[in-house]
Amino acid sequence: MKLSYELTKEDYLAFNLYYVKNSAAIKKSLFAQRFFPPIAFLVLPFIFTGITGEFSVGLSVVFMLTAVAWMMFYPRYFYWHVKNGVNKALNEGKNDNLIGEHTFTLHEDGFIEKNKVEERKVSWSGIEKVAENEEYYFLFFSSMSAYILPKRAFADEEAKRQFRQLADRAVSSDGLWTGRG
């Protein structure tokens, strides 16, 4: 099976958002960043009370509202920050091996990925896991890096089914397929 498609900055942004939303380490970090600062905001009025000897209702309300706003809006800020950082990184340099025309040729023993500047032959044993969401298949070759296969590259549902069967045969013995959508 041979797929030809254009990879865009949006595809790389989508991969990075998929990664940060599904990484256990990043989820844990996001949880801590989302809830520990508000706890500090809620404790600060009591610290000020201990220092000044006087409880300030106004200050307590401000810190409480800040804590609630932080918990509500921090995840949105976090994902915006990720997108902004990836976008800036992609705008640095040429990135000809990332952005642009790609050809992906699938075989029983692996695949060949070609782009404007290089060609890579990869055996299925070099793939740590295969994941998918509504728009993409991701073939992870490390914990943080993957080949991105947009589902729009497949001619039809039958081609997607054939790819999934091939990937299932190649990785099912290791149970590496995740995130079926």
From TrEMBL:
<keyword id="KW-1133">Transmembrane helix</keyword>
<dbReference type="InterPro" id="IPR025588">
    <property type="entry name" value="YcxB-like_C"/>
</dbReference>
<dbReference type="Pfam" id="PF14317">
    <property type="entry name" value="YcxB"/>
</dbReference>
<keyword id="KW-0472">Membrane</keyword>
<keyword id="KW-0812">Transmembrane</keyword>
<protein>
    <recommendedName>
        <fullName>YcxB-like C-terminal domain-containing protein</fullName>
    </recommendedName>
</protein>
<feature type="transmembrane region" description="Helical">
    <location>
        <begin position="57"/>
        <end position="74"/>
    </location>
</feature>
<feature type="transmembrane region" description="Helical">
    <location>
        <begin position="35"/>
        <end position="51"/>
    </location>
</feature>
<feature type="domain" description="YcxB-like C-terminal">
    <location>
        <begin position="107"/>
        <end position="166"/>
    </location>
</feature>
